[in-house]
Design goal:
The complex is a heterotrimer of chains A (332), B (455) and C (226). Chain A has 332 residues and is α/β, with parallel strands linked by helices. Chain A has helices at 11-22, 62-68, 118-121, 137-145, 182-196, 217-223, 274-280, 297-300, 314-331, and strands at residues 3-7, 26-30, 72-75, 79-86, 89-96, 99-106, 108-111, 115-117, 134-136, 159-166, 201-206, 226-230, 235-237, 242-246, 255-259, 261-266, 268-270, 284-285, 291-292, 302-304. In chain A, helix 6 (217-223) links the parallel strand 11 and strand 12. By secondary structure, chain B is α/β, with parallel strands linked by helices. Classes of the chains: A alpha/beta (332), B alpha/beta (455), C alpha/beta (226). Chains in contact: A-B, B-C.
């Protein structure tokens, strides 16, 4: 029976694992953290009285299915140390819960190591102060996932600010590309916040607006009393309450506004150890730090799927993972 | 295997190439008016045109409602120092591929020392191609203006446009005869016709599968029929991805769309009791996947196995009780007057309930969770039958717009409403049955609902 | 087909009060299609009755049987023994079915579960509208295929009453004006001149007004002259 190694147990890795295992292929899933699920496992539903198309439920039940599938063996707390051999017979060295071990006999490898958020790659600068009242987009997702009928936050906020493009789109310090997903997830999250806190002020500070959905998506948001302020990147002034300082183009001068809650909409950044992974897995690194293939998957026996190779929405990640797995199946 | 490509589109050439590479035989029908009939199921469709009848295994619809490259086709070279003005997203949002076309042409003109303005409401990026085009355009000197509202007046005699762009802070006035503002995108009559002919479910704006993120970009309501809508694709890489995904779906054995071919699902299917069937067409009308077809020889409905996604809506709506899901082993439950039966949709409720197993460990002795394919499988009579053995019944189903089967969740909600009315009318407690629309990613809200019901 | 509607639950429950062995006879043809008295509806009704009696701690046994039709006696003969132990039979068939069952099972009480409404058609799932009143002397030839007896609220025969508004009848804004439909249809068919043919006052003896009717296809009978 063919045996495939999948490095990274997030949406991409788990989707590919299920597709392969359901077709009778043996799968070993390597996950460096304590449990599979990656980022999406913590994300919350952004439905109000109807689905808002955030894509999180594409992973519904996925983790349980992977954990219970007899054809998938999961190694959590395990880090890749070395890759040897070639297509048809890869051997890998892994640092795991029981020390170092060698796993052998893999036909192919799929790298689905995902991404890092800005808050995890930067460290408490004034752009990202670590304090109450200022949370990352990821943290907001966690709060949404844990919401009950009563509320999302411990106290109802009277004013909420979303700082868009946090950590992206500035070549001096941050990423020079658009992460594609933040306009989507943050405006959808705002809809839920609006549903739970009907009288709160909600303001989006943005530079550009990515198209999220067809039709009058943004007009609908504005009708819901969500304010959009276009301005250059803002500065956040920590305090109780924290303040947002921004400059409106053509207005001259800087305005400051206080908010009970500031959400930093952060994007998708290349994972911190991409360089190491690229070397181990014979992959390349593109101009923005994401992994890219050097030889095509079929020749090298090494495939890439998910956000490891660049920003993608959840449904795109799943589509890519499925397509990659099926490509593999076609060759076996 | 033959694959029909229906419609005229810039993607057809690439699509044909990829299909041929993968061993399929593409058959193009570019003029949709030529199509006179359509029938069958995945792996066995029949497309009838004025010229011929073709048997195909799959169908890919690529018809685009609007002009392919409006900026390439329409821009005129200006004389003198008139600025060239590109206008996007007016009066409504432009299709995605306009961005690349506009940027490429803006760059060309800017390099020829023309003054170029690029007015848009939204930015679009997908992959690095468009990112790089934006950079190149900025470097070439194109002026980007993001407007919130736009007013355009045109003097028909002189051809002079007066444009007022407002970005919320300032208003910019522009005057030029060299203005390119392509017609806005609306779903064309052709799409309506094709959707009716192929019996596809449409969104409210008559577009066939646009931006339903829980369905993949190219799936439609019917197995074996795909839709590559290049209006929403900005980059070549995105197009390649969609074609690759479509081809992989075509090769996938069971063709259930998103369903994994997990053990157990293979055994599911629909069976129709010919003796009971009244041939009333209710299941045919209700089926969101057009997977029922009349069998005139035997005067009954039959289920098209390759088109069916076993949602069970046909089971719940059949007035003759003639349609059933193929036998599944009944679960021995915790039947008791104080027990709660949770009927949970596989796509949402089941996962949500699972997440609470730890949280509500004590209570779970009195809870029986039974997964159903879709809320649509549940009918008033299944609930009332359950109420004979359980104290309470909770139906968990997907949010509106999230139902994989389009309206299975709404049918479930309606039937629960009706059950409540019947209970009330017969002097029973209508709170014994509830319906909750949710997703798996809000388990605490479900916890609250369960606690409320179990007292 | 015959279109009917289930009686309100309160009415059915009341009529079944005091009976312990209840047999619900659904019908597998017209009332199935219009979702009033098919097997699904009968099973639902049976469950609710059982729940209701359980709540009151009153014993009951409900059985559901579904003859294909209640208007051809063989279907009833085929399952005659199902009704043996019944204290009461609730027939979900149309008026014809209820009466035929009562005839066939003399000595058993047969109660109606539905209200028979009209001869009509399905517009969409769950919606049926009246088309024909069975007047016995069809004049659809004169009115472009739209019936003035059934679809004009006043059964006018020679034109509209003048009370319609935007094509809707004055009695109910959801009801189309029959004569608007007739005119539109004749216009489409280019036969508007038909409206100039005066339709004589109807001989209502061909309708129910002439007494209970019967139809005989003489050549199918062996004992009469053709």
């Amino acid at each position: 029976m063919s045996h495939i190694l999948i490095i990274g147990g997030g949406v991409a890795g788990c989707t590919a694992a299920m597709e392969l295992a359901n077709s009778g292929v043996q799968v070993t899933l390597l996950e460096s953290s304590e449990r599979i699920g990656g980022k999406v496992r913590a994300y919350g539903c952004k439905a109000t009285d109807r689905c808002n198309n955030c894509g999180v439920c594409l992973a519904a039940g996925l983790w349980d299915k992977v954990e219970q599938h007899p054809g998938i063996s999961i190694m959590t707390g395990s880090t890749l140390k070395d890759v040897m051999g070639a297509k048809g017979n890869f051997r890998v060295l892994v640092d795991g819960q029981v020390g170092r071990s060698t796993l052998a006999g893999f036909e192919s490898i799929i790298v689905t190591t995902g991404f890092d958020t800005f808050s995890s790659v930067s460290s408490g600068s004034v752009e990202h102060p670590v304090q109450a009242g200022i949370i990352s987009g990821y943290r907001l997702e966690e709060l949404l996932a844990g919401r009950d009928k009563a509320g999302i936050l411990p106290e109802a906020p009277s004013s909420i600010a979303f700082i868009q493009c946090h950590g992206s789109r500035d070549i001096h310090e941050k990423a020079p590309y658009c992460s594609r997903v933040c306009c989507g997830y943050s405006t959808r999250a705002a809809k839920v916040l609006r549903q739970y806190y009907p009288s709160a002020d909600i303001t989006f500070f943005y530079m550009d607006l990515q198209r999220v959905e067809a039709g009058s998506y943004f007009d609908t948001l504005q009708k819901d009393n969500i304010e959009f302020v276009r301005c250059r990147p803002v500065k956040i002034i920590p305090g109780k309450p924290a303040k947002v300082a921004f400059e409106k183009p053509g207005a001259g001068g800087v305005t400051e506004r206080a908010f009970d809650l500031i959400v930093l909409s952060e994007g998708i950044h290349p994972a911190a150890d991409n360089d190491r992974l690229a070397e181990l897995c014979m992959l390349g690194i593109d101009e923005n730090g994401f992994l890219k293939p050097v030889k095509d998957g079929k020749t090298a026996g090494i495939y890439l799927a998910g956000c490891a190779s660049g920003p993608k929405r959840i449904e795109e990640v799943r589509a890519e993972a499925l397509t990659t797995a099926r490509q593999l199946l076609a060759e076996i | 295997m033959n694959v029909a490509i229906l419609g005229k589109s810039q993607v057809n050439d690439l699509l044909e190439k990829k299909l041929s590479e993968e061993g399929f035989t593409p058959c193009r029908v570019e003029c949709l008016e030529d199509i006179t009939g359509f029938s069958g199921e995945r792996l066995d469709y029949i497309v009838r045109t004025t010229g011929q009848t073709v048997k195909v295994g799959h169908v890919i619809v690529t018809e685009e409602p609007v002009c392919e490259k409006p900026f390439s086709n329409h821009y005129r070279v200006t004389v003198g120092n008139e600025p060239v003005v590109f206008i996007l997203d007016y009066p409504s949002e432009s299709p995605a591929h306009y961005t690349v076309d506009a940027l490429e042409n803006a760059i060309k003109l800017a390099r020829r020392r023309k003054q170029v303005f690029y007015l848009s409401r939204f930015m679009r990026t997908a992959g690095y191609q468009t990112e790089n085009l934006y950079k190149e355009a900025r470097n070439a000197g194109v002026t980007f203006i993001k407007y919130l509202s736009l007013e355009i007046a045109c003097d028909t005699e002189t051809g002079l446009y007066r444009i007022m762009a407002d970005d919320g802070y300032d208003a910019l006035k522009l005057e030029s005869t060299a203005v390119i503002k392509p017609e806005s995108s609306t779903a064309s009559e052709k799409m309506d016709r094709i959707a009716r002919l192929l019996r596809l479910k449409c969104n409210e704006d008559s577009s066939v599968n646009d931006d339903r993120s829980f369905l993949f970009p190219t799936l439609t309501s019917r197995n074996g029929i795909y839709f590559i809508h290049s209006s929403t694709i900005t980059a070549e890489t995105e197009l390649q991805d969609r074609i690759a995904f479509t081809i992989s779906e075509m090769k996938e054995r069971t063709g259930h769309g998103l369903a994994d071919a997990a053990a157990g699902k293979e055994a599911k299917g629909i069976e129709i009791d010919a003796g009971k069937c009244a041939f009333c067409y209710t299941c045919f009308r209700a089926c969101p996947h057009s997977a029922m077809a009349p069998d005139y020889e035997n005067s009954v409905m039959k289920n098209l196995g390759n088109g069916c996604q076993t949602c069970g809506i046909c089971v719940s709506v059949c007035p003759a009780d003639a349609v059933k899901m193929k036998a599944e082993k009944p679960v021995d439950g915790v039947k008791a007057p104080n027990a709660l039966k949770i009927l949970c949709c596989e796509n949402s409720g089941k996962a949500a309930a699972q997440m609470l197993k730890h949280e509500l460990a004590g209570l779970f002795e009195r809870i029986e969770t039974v997964p159903v394919s879709c809320g649509g499988e549940i009918s008033v009579e299944t609930i009332t039958a359950d109420l004979k053995h359980y104290g309470k019944v909770l139906v968990l189903t997907c949010m509106d717009d999230a139902c994989k089967h389009f309206e299975g969740n709404k049918r479930a909600a309606r039937f629960v409403e009706k059950t409540k009315a019947l209970l009330a009318a017969s002097g029973l407690d209508e709170k014994r049955v509830e319906c909750m629309k949710l997703s798996h990613a809000m388990p605490m809200a479900l916890r609250d609902q369960i606690l409320e019901m179990m007292g | 087909m015959i279109v009917a509607e289930q009686k309100p639950l309160e009415e059915i429950s009341k009529s079944l009060e005091g009976f312990e062995n209840i047999v619900i006879a659904a019908c597998g043809t017209c009332v199935t299609v219009c979702m009033a008295g098919g097997e699904k509806e009968a099973l639902k009704l049976a469950s609710v009755l059982e729940l209701n009696r359980a709540e009151q701690a009153v014993p009951v046994k409900v059985k559901v049987v579904t003859p294909k039709r209640q208007c051809d006696v063989e279907f009833l003969d085929d399952m005659a023994e199902e009704f043996g132990g019944a204290d009461v039979i609730l027939s979900m068939g149309c008026g014809a079915g209820v009466q035929f069952m009562a005839e066939r099972f003399r000595g058993k009480l047969v109660l109606p579960g539905i209200n028979t409404k009209f001869i009509g058609v399905a517009r969409e799932i769950g919606v049926w509208t009246e088309m024909c009143q069975g007047c016995g002397a069809c004049i659809l030839e004169k009115t472009g295929g739209v019936c003035p007896v059934a679809r004009c609220s006043k059964s006018n025969f020679n034109g509209p009453c003048g009370g319609s508004m935007d094509g809707k009848c004055e009695i109910d804004p959801n009801v189309d004006c029959g004569w608007q439909l007739i005119y539109d249809r004749l216009k489409e068919l280019d036969r508007v001149e038909k409206l100039y043919e005066i339709v004589e006052p109807k001989d209502w003896r061909s309708s129910r007004d002439g007494g209970p009717r019967s139809v005989e296809k003489k050549e199918m009978r062996l004992d009469t002259d053709i």
